[in-house]
């Protein structure tokens, strides 16, 4: 496996400038996403929950919750924990 | 800098199932082929499907071996994330100008470890999952992607460098820019596939408004084991749906939205998806509202009868309006044709709009070929030369000429490859041209 010697830190600075920097809109989007992920994680610290239960606990709309829960599941932060009625339960993964 | 020869016998535009088949058939006859796709992976629409009709075979199990074969063929050069700018006919073949978009990853150095993808902390909607699933700013397009190389999306990148920090080969290259590539091709095969008509084309169906109104490709992903949820769930709240409706002709056979033709595959994919829902959710009620069922292909009528036998309700009706009611359920106001036109309000958990099939790419001025009024590529002699465009040397396969199912697209790809091979033999000796 060969490793390139390029200076990615210097390249990243140039790239960021070339792309117009980090706009206020993008910062706000990133902040909102961090808050949503944190709110979901905090809710799940109480134990396994369904999407409507997370939505109620985190005060977030359920379509937002399912989208972020599925993102967290895909990238290993949440796992399924059985079923409750018509809904699957989700829980934080221990290592997450 | 992309390493590429200056001459290829065949240029195939679009690496979906038709494009791959055409490329493989040409390569199998000894021709050198450049296979180009605008997406970061080959495979087209088919690699994202769950099953195929009428056999219910796994779609990616059919598609991925062809992807691997195309990628490993010594006579096929893949160029992904690349678009055609223009092709101009000249004395010997076509002068072709392409634009390779920057991945910000050096393909040759990447080992496909996914560490960059896992290190990125911000998510956005993943097109492969029709927005229902998420992906980070840097991502490998999907599990079966070829090449297994990530692509960085600057629009969702926070420029924190996490991806480059964890890359074991230092292959993230923030200096990459779009690259113009010029080649000469002896012949061109256009296999640019399909896109669906817009979800908001019929505002009365609420496709642009209600989360539980889905398009059929989104349902394919939801049904797939590697889909965004891993189960069939509603996008609004993760509920397991018990009552699912399909609204046929929701984007076809309708002059008012500019799609007057029949999209040919909607009846069959709706039946297929309905059967798959019944297989996965045994107590689910699936209703297909249709004007008429067009089961025209080999084994299709039997497939329709199988769906009915397995409990799928097929109702001749016209859906006038879809409204969201409490719990984000959906109310369908329908005119039941077989009940003398009685109007009924019927409630469902989830609705799939069987949207129309439209050309996936319009050449504009990039290719000097004629286009039909509906945007599909004109075939002047459809009965006798179904793969020949209006320009000698440019051939067409798959949905680029009009809506069709996968078997027809594959057969047409074979015809396009054969026509291209005969054209190449007629116009020049491919062995005489240096690599």
Task: Describe what you observe in this structure.
- The complex is a heterodimer of chains A (96) and B (435).
- Chain A is 55% helix and 14% strand.
- By secondary structure, chain A is α+β, with helices and mostly antiparallel strands.
- Chain A has a single domain (8-92), classed as Winged helix-like DNA-binding domain superfamily/Winged helix DNA-binding domain (Arc Repressor Mutant, subunit A, Orthogonal Bundle).
- In chain A, helix 2 (24-44) packs across helix 3 and helix 3 packs across helix 4.
- Chain A is elongated.
- Chain B is an alpha/beta fold and 435 residues long.
- Chain B has two domains: 7-101 and 178-193 and 360-432, FAD/NAD(P)-binding domain (3-Layer(bba) Sandwich), CATH 3.50.50.60; 197-356, FAD/NAD(P)-binding domain (3-Layer(bba) Sandwich).
- Chain B is globular, with a radius of gyration of 23 Å.
- The model of chain B has no long low-confidence stretch (mean pLDDT 96).
- The A-B interface holds A 1-6, 8-9, 11-12, 14-16, 19, 22, 26, 30, 33, 50-52, 55, 62-63, 66-71, 73-76, 80, 86-88 and B 104, 106, 109, 111, 118, 122-123, 125, 132-134, 136, 154, 157-159, 161, 164, 168-175, 211, 228-231, 233, 235-240, 242, 328.
- What's the mean pLDDT score of chain B? 96
How many independent structural domains of chain B? Answer: 2
Largest sheet of chain A: 2 strands, antiparallel
Number of helices of chain A: 4
- Using DSSP, what is the number of strands of chain A? 2
- What are the secondary-structure elements of chain B, in order, as H or E? EHEHEEEHEEEEHEEEHEHEHEEEEEEH
Write the CATH architecture name of chain A. Orthogonal Bundle
Rg of chain B, nearest Å:
23 Å
Give the second-level CATH assignment, the architecture of the largest domain in chain B.
Answer: 3-Layer(bba) Sandwich
| Number of domains as seen in the coordinates of chain A | 1
- Overall 3D geometry of chain B? globular
């Amino acid at each position: 496996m060969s490793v390139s010697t390029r200076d990615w830190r210097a390249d990243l600075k140039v790239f960021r400038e070339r792309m117009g920097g980090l706009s206020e809109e993008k910062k706000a989007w990133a902040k909102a996403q961090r808050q949503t992920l944190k709110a979901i994680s905090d809710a799940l610290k109480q134990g396994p929950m369904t999407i409507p239960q997370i939505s109620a606990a985190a005060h977030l709309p359920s379509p937002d919750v399912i989208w972020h829960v599925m993102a967290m599941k895909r990238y290993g932060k949440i796992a399924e924990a059985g079923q409750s009625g018509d809904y699957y339960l989700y829980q934080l993964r221990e290592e997450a | 800098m992309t390493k590429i020869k200056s001459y290829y016998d065949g240029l195939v535009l679009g690496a979906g199932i038709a494009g791959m088949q055409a490329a493989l058939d040409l390569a199998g006859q000894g021709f050198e082929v450049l296979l180009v796709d605008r997406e970061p992976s080959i495979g087209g629409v088919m690699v994202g499907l769950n099953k195929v009709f009428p056999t219910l075979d796994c779609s990616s199990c059919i598609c991925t071996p062809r992807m691997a074969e195309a990628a490993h063929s010594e006579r096929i050069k893949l160029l992904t994330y690349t678009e055609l700018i223009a092709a101009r006919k000249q004395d010997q073949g076509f002068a072709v100008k392409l634009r390779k978009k920057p991945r910000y990853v050096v393909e040759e150095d990447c080992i496909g470890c996914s560490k960059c993808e896992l290190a990125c902390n911000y998510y956005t909607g993943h097109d492969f999952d029709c927005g229902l699933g998420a992906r980070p700013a840097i991502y490998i397009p999907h599990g079966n992607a070829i090449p297994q190389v990530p692509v960085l999306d600057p629009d969702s990148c926070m420029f924190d460098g996490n991806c480059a920090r964890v890359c074991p080969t230092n292959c993230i290259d923030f200096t990459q820019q779009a690259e113009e590539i010029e080649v000469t091709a002896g012949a061109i095969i256009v296999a640019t596939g399909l896109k669906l008509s817009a979800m908001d084309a019929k505002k009365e169906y609420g496709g642009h408004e209600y989360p539980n109104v889905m398009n059929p490709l989104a349902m394919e992903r939801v049904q797939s084991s590697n889909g965004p949820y891993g189960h069939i769930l509603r996008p609004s709240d993760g509920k397991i749906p018990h009552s699912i409706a399909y609204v046929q002709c929701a984007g076809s056979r309708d002059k008012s939205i500019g799609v007057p033709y029949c999209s040919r595959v909607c009846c069959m994919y709706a039946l297929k998806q309905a059967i798959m829902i019944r297989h996965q959710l045994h107590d689910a009620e699936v209703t297909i509202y249709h004007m008429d069922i067009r089961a025209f292909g080999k084994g299709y009528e039997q497939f329709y009868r199988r769906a009915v036998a397995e409990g799928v309700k097929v109702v001749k009706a016209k859906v006038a309006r879809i409204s969201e009611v409490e719990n984000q359920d959906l109310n369908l106001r329908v005119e039941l044709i077989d009940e003398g036109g009685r109007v009924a309000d019927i409630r469902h958990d989830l609705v799939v709009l069987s949207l129309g099939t439209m050309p996936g790419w319009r050449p504009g001025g990039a290719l000097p070929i004629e286009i039909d009024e509906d945007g599909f590529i004109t075939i002047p002699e459809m009965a006798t030369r179904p793969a020949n465009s209006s320009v000698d040397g440019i051939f067409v396969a798959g949905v680029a000429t009009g809506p069709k199912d996968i078997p027809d697209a594959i057969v047409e790809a074979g015809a396009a490859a054969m026509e291209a091979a005969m054209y190449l033999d007629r116009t020049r000796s491919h062995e005489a041209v240096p690599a």
